[in-house]
Amino acid sequence: MRSPTRSRFEPLAAACLAVAVLACEALAASPEAMRDAYVHWRGGAAYERLQGRHYRGTLKVTTLEGTFECWEDSAGRYRMDFRSGAISVSTRIAEASGFEQTASGQVEILAAADRTRRLRSMVTGYAAALSGAMEARLVALPAERPGAEAPAGGFRVQFPGGDYCDFELGADGELLRCRERSDGKEETVTVRAWRIVDGIRMPQVIETISQSDGQRTLMEVQVDEPNPAFDAATFAKPETESRVKFAGEAHDSGAIPIELFEETRIFLAGSIGGRTASMLLDSGASVTVIDHRLAEAAGIEPTGNLDVRGMGGSASTAIANDVIITIGTMTLRTGMVLLMDLTEISRMTDHPIDIVLGKEVMNDTVTDIDFEAGSIVFRDPRDFTAPAGMVRVPLTVAGGNRTIAVSVEGHEPIAVDFDLGNGGGLLLNPKSMTKWGMTQDRPIAQCLSGGVGGLKVAHRFVVKELNVAGFVVRNLPAQAPVSTEGLDVYAGETVQGNLGMAVWNRFHLMLDFGRNQLFLAAPPERLARPFAKNRSGLATQREGDGLKVLFVDPTFPAAVCEKDAEIVAIDDVPVSRIRSSTAWTESPAGTVVRLRFRDGREAALTLQDYY
After folding, report:
1. Domain range for residue 405?
2. Residue 42 in contact with residue 34, Cβ under 8 Å?
3. For residues 23 and 36, what is the distance between their CA atoms, to the nearest angstrom?
4. CB-facing half-sphere around the CA of 526: CA atoms within 13 A
5. Torsion angle defined by CA atoms of residues 229, 233, 236 and 238, in that order, rounded to the nearest 10 degrees
6. 22-36, 350-364, 410-424, 507-521: which has the minimum mean pLDDT?
7. Chosen domain end from 527, 548, 568
8. Residue 600 in contact with residue 567, Cβ under 8 Å?
9. Are 126 and 78 in contact (CB under 8 A)?
10. Is 532 a domain residue?
11. Domain identity same for 58 and 91
12. 113, part of any domain
């Protein structure tokens, strides 16, 4: 007597054996034949009937481990929830809408391009996508396939715009791995530990490695339910409450004085746990960051650890939740916050930083920044009326950041991140720099650029004209990384840069992130002001009573020192008495600056417009 298990799977095994014989010939033939071999290997008619899944298990992203649950169907509905300790995130897509609930509890609209890409990646798991769903086309794999294990064959599912998913198959039609390209970013997805569920082969282990930054994601499926019935509410927008409150009957924070430090950084005062804090406003920070010493003094207990990515790379940090920050008459109850040593960033900005105040507060308020008045007001968005005389500019969300369309030197508009935490001007993706011939038609210098994750060498040059919503600035210093290795932020194609405070400090800004819009006004005289420019060829950082030379630009025609030299006096004024560590580098070209070094040597440095 045969066991029930054996009798259940014998027909499938026989079918797979027959298909395996045919597959040897099919894999050397057309993409359609290879697809058919794969479909039969997955379960044939049972796989073709697969229209949706509900599955859950464990998920590990670098050092972060937790549990996930996913609902999806081939019609284009998708939800993924992930929880790790106090961290909880959710992505939901249905019909023409998509939302993301971030680790800090913010709910943000997914841009249309992001929705499309996520759905494309998801639907390649269903037979329908292999037969033309979502405008997919079946084409042959490229002849050259990198990797230690060469596939016996396979096929490419090609989407409009250049996105694709390559299926690499074994000799019997077995799926070995997928190589996905989305928005210019490439990932290798390896699937293994297959099991049969309702006659369909389903992978239990899915490992994804990003080619741009090496990030590894490991998903282990423990429960897998094919073709479940879904409630539409499963994919609805997450319900959240505002984390901002105003005292009494107030509808805003009141006017808070700001310090526009060196015209590049916005500082304001607040408090946490009854302790005064110097806060740097950073619209590009997805979460708020608190210096670990202040957190400890305020009694904030870490709840876990997380890898974070910035313009300089990645770093590991502790996290906490539900921290109360007071600013004027406003209190912000945060979601997840990062607890980091902000000493290095304070050195880089040459200003003490206790808290980096991220976009969390901007998502729940209308943030009114008036540089001429020297103040900021956080307003209740429910009472907001668009101001007369200001230009409305739509914002989009990409990669978790707000982006804005700009035109560089008359070229086609590109999307750049709107970033109040970038103290410079334009950070440009080197792909655009090369495409527009900027490496050939102007002097190119070098500098250091970065933030969280460290500093990296970048090209430095001047953009002749930048148009933002009809406002034009000229001769804007710009940067582009020499190498994008490890910088996932530059790997995509949707966002081509980052626009920072050197430009935004010329405007009156009203940020309505909740409705993805920005209002701008700028007097012509402010737009016409010359931009600050480092003419010294040096990158320095304050250390004790001196300035340590971090970088000497090899393109500077008259260098006077080497890397790691220490400047102790500038024009006979001790560095300890100089408030700004960079103002001397921005004097007019031809200015001779006398430098004294710690070893007693003196040198005369002539500032130059060499880029």
Report:
1. 381-527
2. no
3. 9
4. 16
5. -120
6. 22-36
7. 527
8. no
9. no
10. no
11. yes
12. yes
Whether the CB-CB separation of 280 and 265 falls below 8 Å is answered with yes
Secondary structure of 152-204 in HEC code, one letter for each residue: CEEEEEECHHHCEEEEEECCCCCEEEEEEEECCEEEEEEEEEEEEECCEEEEE
Strands 375-379 and 566-570, sheet pairing: unpaired
Two tokens, residue 367: 């943030």
Task: State the average pLDDT over residues 408-415.
Answer: 96
Residue 12's alpha-carbon distances to 8, 49, 124, 198, 432, in angstroms, are 8, 15, 23, 11, 52
State both tokens at 456.
């990296």
Yes or no: say if 249 and 383 are a contact pair by the CB < 8 Å rule. no
Choice among 308-322, 430-444, 464-478 with the minimum mean pLDDT: 308-322
State the pairing for strand pair 164-169/153-158: antiparallel
Statement to judge: residues 249 and 319 lie in one domain: yes
Tell me which residue of 181, 186, 153 sits closest to 168, measured CA to CA: 153
User: What DSSP element (H or E) covers 23?
Assistant: helix 4-26
Answer positive or negative: Cα dihedral of 223, 227, 229, 230.
positive
User: Whole-prediction pTM value?
Assistant: 0.81
| Three-state secondary structure string covering 204-259 | EEEEEEECCCCCEEEEEEEEEEECCCCCHHHHCCCCCCCCEEECCCCCECCCEECE
| Greater pLDDT, 3 or 412 | 412
Nearest alpha-carbon partner for 210 in 586, 605, 488, 501: 488
User: Is the same domain home to 166 and 223?
Assistant: yes
Regarding whether 364 and 288 lie in a shared domain, the answer is yes
pLDDT tens-digit series, residues 524-557: 999 999 999 999 999 999 999 999 999 999 999 9
Alpha carbons 73 and 280: distance in angstroms, whole number: 43
Cβ atoms of 538 and 417 closer than 8 Å: no
Q: Are the CB atoms for 343 and 356 separated by under 8 Å?
A: no
Of 327, 520, 311, nearest to 401 (Cα)?
311
Token pair 């943000």: residue: 108
φ and ψ of 492, to 5 deg: -80, 175
Q: Which SS3 state, helix, strand or coil, does residue 415 take?
A: strand
Nearest to 54 by CA among 197, 178, 179: 197
In a domain, 199, yes or no: yes
- Residue 24: pLDDT over 80: no
Decide if 420 contacts 571 (C-beta within 8 A): no
- Compute CA 54 distance to the chain's CA centroid, rounded to the nearest angstrom: 28
d(CA 386, CA 518): 10
Of 342, 363, 379, the domain-final residue: 379
Same domain, 514 and 549: no
- Which residue type, as a one-letter code, is found at position 470? G
Q: What is the mean pLDDT of residues 427-450?
A: 92
Specify whether 249 is located in the same domain as 231: no
Residue 564 and residue 486 in one domain:
no
Query: Phi, psi (5° rounding) for residue 113?
Result: -65, -40
pLDDT digits (tens, 9 = 90+) for 308-366: 655 445 566 899 989 999 999 999 999 889 999 999 889 888 899 999 999 999 999 99
Q: Is 523 exposed, middle or buried (0-12, 13-18, 19+ CB in 10 A)?
A: exposed
264 and 346 fall within a common domain: yes
